[in-house]
Design a protein that fits this description.
alpha/beta; Rossmann fold; nine-stranded mixed beta sheet; hydrolase activity; Alpha/beta hydrolase
């Protein structure tokens, strides 16, 4: 018989209680740590996040949080990737956000090859729960969390902002995110079984209409939602700008604050824009986040 004390000691420490790994400190004081487990999924890989913490100039008060959600059509992507334009930035986008006074958590979630909706949304809620549990160690205030997502990550960040309580996010920054996976929007066909939306849901949206509506931010808009900033390219060939227009309309009709900016000449991922134009969108997003997080 296997000794019970052996079974108790074999697993790695649970993320809720495991010691945090050492942080690396940059010249500007920003501290970083990569690959911190935040949740264990039975039969799957541990879910991890990267952390960027601002330097000591922020003082002793806990700092607000940007919870970043990566894109990749719910099928692929890296937690530390904000999109094609930002990959060559130095300093990178997350260091810039930390320099502005935020902690940044770049979060893994289960992709559609691993699990279907609502698993990725559940994972983001688990990440926010873990950050709240470890807030004293990290010096953060998750009651001032801004969720920021791009593309598929924008879709999930929207849903997190609209559905999560304890704590409810303070604001949402959404870059060209899908807002409706239930209705036909060319080139998307809800009856097709092989779309990225169908892979997310585990079936063609037309076959699971209730689940598709539950997975659509435009159908989850409600009174009391946190403020939203929606940025979308007018010429987006992958996620039409009407997604953001319709989500903005639904939020306004519910009585919730929303700012919509449709960007001329921009395709998905800000393709077609020059560097200064993308820098402007980033600065506007960071300024919005700071206003609503009390910075």
């Amino acid at each position: 018989m296997i000794p019970p004390e052996l079974l108790a000691q074999l697993p790695a420490p649970h993320p809720d209680t495991a010691a945090l790994p050492p942080f690396a400190q940059r010249a500007d004081g920003v501290r970083t740590v990569r690959g911190v487990p935040y949740a264990l999924v039975d039969g799957g890989r541990p879910l991890e996040l990267d952390l960027w913490l601002p330097g000591p100039s922020t003082g002793e008060q806990p700092v607000p949080v940007v919870l970043f959600v990566h894109g990749g059509a719910w099928r692929r992507g890296r937690r530390d990737d904000m999109g094609l334009h930002t990959r060559s930035w130095g300093p990178g986008p997350f260091e810039r956000i930390a320099r502005a006074g935020f902690a940044v958590a770049c979060v893994d979630y289960r992709l559609s090859g691993e699990a279907t909706f609502p698993a990725p949304l559940d994972d983001l809620g688990a990440a926010l729960r873990w950050l709240t549990l470890r807030d004293k160690e990290l010096g953060i205030d998750t009651a001032r969390t801004v969720v920021w997502g791009e593309s598929a990550g924008g879709h999930l960040a929207s849903l997190l902002a609209l559905t999560h309580d304890g704590p409810r996010p303070a604001a949402a920054v959404i870059w060209y995110g899908p807002a409706d996976v239930s209705a036909a929007r060319p080139p998307f066909d809800p009856a097709a079984p092989d779309t990225m939306e169908a892979l997310l849901l585990g079936a063609a949206p037309a076959r699971v209409p209730d689940l598709a509506r539950a997975a659509s931010p435009v159908h989850r808009a409600r009174a009391g939602a946190p403020p939203f900033l929606l940025l979308h390219g007018e010429d987006d060939s992958m996620v039409p700008a009407d997604h953001s227009r319709d989500l903005a309309r639904a939020l306004r009709e519910a009585g919730s604050p929303v700012e919509l900016r449709v960007v001329p000449h921009a395709d998905h991922g800000w393709y077609g824009l020059d560097g200064p134009a993308v820098e402007d969108l980033f600065r506007a997003s960071l300024a919005f986040a700071g206003r609503h997080a009390g910075l």
